[in-house]
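Next up, a chain.

===
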Amino acid sequence: MLIVTPNFHFKGQCKEAIELYKKAFGAEVKVLLCRSDANPQDYIVKDPNQNGLVYHAEIYIGTQRIMLSDLEENTPSCGNPLSLTITFEMAEDVKKAYAIMADGAAIVHPMKSTTYSSCFVSFVDRFGMRWELMTEQTER
């Protein structure tokens, strides 16, 4: 069986992003390893000042596992064409999560009702990750 897992990479802000996702989506942290926690056979910390950066983290939003880490310095940037869609039961839940995420975010599609969702918003958070928050149904 294949498993597809989104993997977010940050420029030194991974822990901050995890805290934001915990507040907005109730994300549960299952694994959080800093670079200083890495087995030297797997990873050698090149700069001791970066020991606190995230080597590997796993959070769950609902039942979806998401992996996260901080990028190495000089890692080539390849853009971010991928997004995560979080589907809520009620429009109020979309609005609440978006209010938490909105600080420093860039709107892609403003919050509105669509033919497939009573409440939909798309944005790039302050860490450069693209999110779509929505309800699946159109009654609430």
Notes: The two ends are 36 Å apart (CA to CA). The chain has two helices and eight strands.
